[in-house]
Write a structure and sequence with these properties.
The structure is a single chain. The chain is of the alpha/beta class and 274 residues long. It has 3 domains: 50 residues, Multidrug-efflux Transporter Regulator, Chain: A, Domain 2, CATH 1.10.1660; 79 residues, Methyltransferase, Methionine Synthase (B12-binding Domains), Chain A, domain 1 (Orthogonal Bundle), CATH 1.10.1240; 121 residues, Rossmann fold, CATH 3.40.50.280. The protein is built from 11 helices and 8 strands. 41% of the residues are buried.
Length: 274
Amino acid sequence: MNNFDSSAPMVSSTQAAALLGVHVASIKRWADQGRLRCVRTPGGHRRFVRAEVVALGGSVDSGPQEFRQRLLTALIAGKQMSAEAVLLEQWGEVGRWEMVGDSVGIMLAEMGEAWSAGRLNITEEHVASETLLRSLGRIQMMMPGRDSTKVCALATAPGDEHTLGLAMTELVLAEHGWQTLWLGRFSPLETLCEVAARDDVKMVAISASGFSSLPSHLGDLVMRLGPIALASNTHLVLGGSGAWPENVFGVKRVKEHADFGELLRGLTPKGASS
């Protein structure tokens, strides 16, 4: 579609849905109806101007924005139990942790913008991040037992220190019955390759941010890890906004938690009959 400002911040269908508190199907329907303008990526995915999505919010539920504001207030104050209550309440509203996760992702982006603009100091940002990490971890521990035959190893790409997305991913996995093997930050490539070849590990999910991971390093990682995962019939999932290579060694590329949830629902675990 013409007359788009190419420098304007853009969001995906899932992010737009999280901003407005609606199902992603509603976003796609509004795009088809011309109610919400979009452009298509080379891969055919819709992208929307964030300001136009926010402007549309005046005619739909403002719940997600209120959720993000309430959560951020509790996090900055270091009130872990309050943060957990806000997260659980939102999960009760939307029904899936993947949808909560995408709203939290938007809040983290807004928090980064506030820090850059001087509206949030480094202490507040640190307290908020640590409180969120502890809150997600405690909620995950309270969830029902998972299937011991479905284990996913979680790690950030070497050199990437952002683990909040991984903690949210752990909740999504738990909701789908998966156990997790937490590798977290600073996992050497050799460790990732060893884990991917293990019989008890059915999936390896690695997150990379757009700020901390060089495309060349991500490419080298996939070239080393991809063949091992493929030979072991281990699902290799690459997440985050990093510049991961795509369409190689059968890897699954996801950028949002809703996409990851959809992927989990469609997977046949390693060792199971299709």
